[in-house]
Structures are given as C-alpha cells and as structure tokens.
Amino acid sequence: MAGAEASVGDLPMPVEQLINQFIAKETEFARARELPAVRVMPSMISVPGARAFVLEEDAARGPDEAFMVGREFAHVHPADDGSLHIDAAAGPRSGGRAAGMG
To answer: Which tens digit of pLDDT belongs to each residue from 53-90?
Structure first.
C-alpha cells in the first residue's frame, strides 16, 4: 500500500499521511473529551455522525451566544471529512473557562 494516494480536495495525498492525520485527530479528540465538565454527544447542529463537545449544565455559565446550539461549543465531522468546528466564544471569556479551556 506504500505510495498509494487518495484525493483530498484537489490535492493528492499519500494514504499514510491521511492515516497519520486521522490518528492525530482521534488522539486529540480523546484528550479533549477528558476535560472536566465536557461530554461528547451527537452534534445537534452538524452533519449526521458528527461528535459534539457539550458542557455540563452547571458548567455552562456563558451567554447563549457562547454556544452553537444548546451547550454545544464544538464538533468534529465524521472521518470522511474530520474537520473541527469550534465556537471561539466558548473559550476563556465564557463557559469554556469552567471546563478548563481558559
């Protein structure tokens, strides 16, 4: 399989690089879900299969604008895309601080 390529957008990318990126993303995802007061749930706003980071109710002290929907402040698309979307407002100046993000 060495040297095999897959298409990522308009740029060819070796399969090994895609696998390494996926492993790195999953490692970071696992670390993030260990944050205090953060739970992983299906996203309420993203594509089917997206995993959301949601603050527990007692930790979600920021204004409603600090969240995408409900207490969801970030989500990761499924492996075929893998992109991470985060609401920067959920960081140091809002409820994100309660989850150790600030």
So the answer is: 899 999 888 788 888 999 998 888 887 777 888 876 65
Total Cβ atoms within 10 A of residue 19: 12
- Contact present, 46 and 74 (Cβ < 8 Å): no
> Please, which residues bridge with residue 72 across strands?
54, 69
Average pLDDT of the residues in 22-38: 79
Q: What is the pLDDT of residue 94?
A: 45
Contacts of 4 (CB under 8 A, 6+ apart): 14, 15
Rg, the chain, Cα only: 16
- DSSP state letter for 69: B
DSSP 30: H
**Residue extents of the structural domains in the chain:** 10-99
